[in-house]
Amino acid sequence: MSDLAELSVTDAASAFAKGEVTAEAMVRACLARIDAHDVKVNTVIRLDREAALEAAAAQDKARAGGVALGKLAGVPMMHKDMYYRTGKVSTCGSKIRRDFTPTVTATALQRLDAAGAIDMGTLNMAEFAQNPTGHNAHFGDCHNPWNLPYCTGGSSSGSGAGVAARFFAAALGSDTGGSIRLPASICGVTGIKGTQTRVPRTGVMPLSFSMDNVGPLTRTARDAARVMTVISGSDDIDPTAAPEAVPDYEAALTGDIRGLRIAVPHEWFFDSADDIVVTAFEAALEVLKARGATVDYVACPSLRAIGAYVAVVSRVEGATIHANWMRDHPGDYAIHLSGRLYGGYAIPGTYYLEALSRRGALLRQFCKEAFIDHDIVATPTLRMRVPTLAETDIDVDPAANWARHMAVSANTRPFNYLGLPTVSVPCGLDDRGLPMGLQLSARPFGEGRALMVADAYQQDTDWHARMPPLA
């Protein structure tokens, strides 16, 4: 434990519970790393230094007094700046909400507080969570700690970059089209979006009512399992939160995937894929096969319709949420976002209703194609190598950069429309030293199975343990 900031969630919680470290020491180690390096990465929007140290001291006192400890006691965390906390400004990465002070605290934050986690503040993000690359015209772009000119993925850019840089052990992000899994893959960490409605969205800035997801970015699948166990479950305030009982996801991480059947769709996920990405993905499959899993390539023709409908739903729902601000403050949006929102207003209502009404049928069709004889769907998280910030900046050059910008999230978006639990884990470094990701999806409420496969993969690889040069 030469640097306490390098402890994972489960290692930090274990060391704290055993009395090997104090919460205050872990928080100070994280603060020191932020102070030293965040000027280059730009992950932090609000750093609650004194409040975090006070919360850490309270956890240390509770442990000394023999108080029962929560699953995350003493663990330093920060969160995407769209999780509301009463009395604290939540900018949502925007100019419009630069001074917004909520009067509620997000259910997910309340559950982390109750589990003993230490909240150190809020993180940079794409404006109103509508960007897959991590650009932000108002607070500055977030930079990839593996190579600063490269993008972090978005919209949970600060969450992915900060976990990778060891600024904190874990962070909450949100995922409407891949915004947890993209920064997880691009920054070399683990990220999961659960089944649609698995985690309550109370007190979280909305983007798309029918596709928003709350979830963590962490170092390991085991870390993600522990955080998901804490934040998942029904919520009296959020009627959309699923009532299904929450299992102990961490307890399911046995490493035994003998006989598990993995499907790899022929369609969509490999369109114009970079060779190095395909090679890394195939190598990851070999690791899983060596543990006893079987792999089959399957036909999933439903993906073409799914890929078209997901864009309709997200654009119309996003434009609806922003209608009043777009009328009153259109100049306060970055160019790329205002253009995206105006596009949403141009989509006919009949197209939107068609996309919604076909959703259940396409979910059944995809499950029949991919899951009837299989347990997991595996794909690359990105088809492409990590692009630079300049190559994906559509405010500067939309004509040249738009296709590359949208290609970043091509492989993640379908699972938001389908509402399926999906995890991304690091599976290699490309020829420029940037991370690549393996994406694993399961049936509805199959988070435990996806995490079990992710953890089994990490037991035989060390990509998740590697630190970027900045760290």
TrEMBL record:
Ranges for domain Amidase: 26-449
GO molecular function: catalytic activity
Highest taxon above the source species: Bacteria
Gene3D superfamilies: Amidase signature (AS) domain
Name used for this protein in its record: Amidase
Organism: Neoroseomonas lacus
